[in-house]
Design goal:
The protein is an alpha/beta fold and about 375 residues long. The protein folds into two domains: about 180 residues, 3-Layer(aba) Sandwich (Rossmann fold), CATH 3.40.50; about 170 residues, NAD(P)-binding Rossmann-like Domain (Rossmann fold). The chain is about 35% helix and about 15% strand. The chain contains twelve helices and 15 strands. Helix 5 crosses helix 6. It binds nicotinamide-adenine-dinucleotide. The site of nicotinamide-adenine-dinucleotide has 32 residues, from helix 5, helix 6 and strand 8.
């Protein structure tokens, strides 16, 4: 199959959907890979790394879209990319269609076959979301530690303290992927860490595997309020699948917190689990409410594109390879996992959540698959 990789054009998006190692594998498997010149530069991969891997470098996005039978991207297509897509072409990327009716209608109008990273399910897990949660969780502590510095307006406390001087207290709300990675980083730096979750099995697991400087607490509204006055850094990492994040810290709770303490609400992309959070950017990441510093960057992995690109492509590559081998129709009928990734196929909505979000007709992916080549 001819696989095209355009440069990402969303502001502040520096990732690329395929590494040279990925290109090498796809070419070895008999595919042709076409990459837009410069697409990998911000992730640390110059054009030459791709040509050495057997890929062809094309000058611009128009050429990549026109040549490729399958486009592999990181972020959802933007309006200037819509006219480049065409009937029968495969698109494999983060789509988040349920968040945008305009985008969903545009994908329907192209007649292309759109597979989304974020809905691909294996068992009950979403393996193509996990790597970005891992990056964001680890970054939450790096970012929080920086904001805690006095020059940034924070308390002026070092997470691990030093011998003879107390360590900072870190409260992590949610013990899933983000929360666990954040807690691990904070523990590694020597902080005094508390993790809260409502899933008892998860708490049991965390209690077994986390270091001694991490304790687990069942999450209730009272428990959160009891811990807030002691926390130097709070990390918001809760998720209710398919829903908005529950508000575990309310505006009135901020007055319980220390002046110049820090909240990093990683869950801000789902509305945030702290009532006073609203999305910020890497260019201006922090705002203050009631003397508490809020860091609420909605695309944290964007700050570390080299790591994020590697983490993302490690997870996506085998699926890219399968789609390329099978084509859209057989990908859906032969792989349950790829069927869950299909969102819009030949103008039909094949993801129930997207159809329900906009009152559109839902068609089972295997039904549409039979109608396409
Ligand atoms: N800002 C970013 O750049 C960025 C990047 C990646 C992920 N995220 C977001 O981070 C959030 C967490 O993602 P994840 O992958 O860790 O999800 P996850 O499903 O692995 O973990 C969420 C955890 O929250 C727990 N939870 C639910 N309700 C709770 C409550 N009331 N109190 C305490 N815990 C509760 C769940 O039991 C679960 O263990 C999501 O909103 C995700 O979209 C943001």
């Amino acid at each position: 199959m001819k696989i095209g990789v355009p440069t990402e054009i969303k502001p502040q998006e520096n990732r690329v959907a395929l590494t040279p190692a990925g290109a090498d594998r796809l070419v070895t498997e008999g595919n042709e890979v076409f990459i837009q010149s410069g697409a990998g530069v911000n992730s640390g991969f110059p054009d030459k790394a791709y040509t050495d891997a057997g890929a062809t470098v094309l000058a611009d996005a128009d050429a990549v879209f026109a040549t490729a039978e399958m486009i592999v991207k990181v972020k959802e297509p933007l309006p200037e990319e819509f006219p480049r897509m065409r009937e029968g072409q495969i698109m494999f990327t983060y789509l988040h269609l349920a968040a945008s009716k305009e985008l969903t209608e545009a994908m329907i109008a192209t007649g292309s076959h759109c597979f989304a990273y974020e809905t691909l399910e294996v068992g009950r897990t979403l393996p193509l979301l996990t790597p970005m949660s891992e990056v964001a969780g680890r970054m939450a502590i790096q970012a929080g530690a920086k904001v805690l510095e006095r020059s940034q307006g924070g308390l002026g406390i070092l997470l691990g303290g030093v011998p003879g001087v107390k360590r900072a207290k870190v409260l992590v709300l949610g013990g899933g992927v983000v929360g666990t990675q954040a807690a691990r980083m904070a523990c590694g730096l020597g902080a005094d860490v508390t993790m809260m979750d409502i899933d008892l099995d998860r708490l049991r697991y965390l209690d077994d595997v986390m270091p001694k400087n991490c304790r687990t607490v069942y999450s209730t509204s009272l428990a959160v309020r009891e811990h807030l006055p002691h926390a130097d850094l709070v990390v918001g990492a809760v998720l209710i699948p398919g829903g908005a994040a529950p508000k575990l810290v309310r505006r009135e709770d901020l007055k319980l917190m220390k002046k110049n303490s820090v909240i990093v609400d990683v869950a801000v992309d789902q509305g945030g689990c702290v009532e006073t959070c609203s999305p910020t950017t890497h260019a201006d990441p922090v705002f203050i409410v009631d003397d508490v510093l809020h860091y609420c960057v909605a695309n944290m992995p964007g700050a570390v594109p080299q790591t994020s690109t590697m983490a993302l492509t490690n997870a996506t590559l085998s699926y890219t390879s399968q789609i390329a081998r099978l084509g859209a129709s057989a990908a859906i009928t032969e792989s349950n996992e790829l069927a869950t990734a299909s969102n819009v196929i030949a103008g039909q909505v094949t993801c129930r959540a997207v159809a329900e979000a906009f009152g559109m007709e839902y068609v089972r992916p295997e039904v549409v698959a039979k109608t396409i080549g």
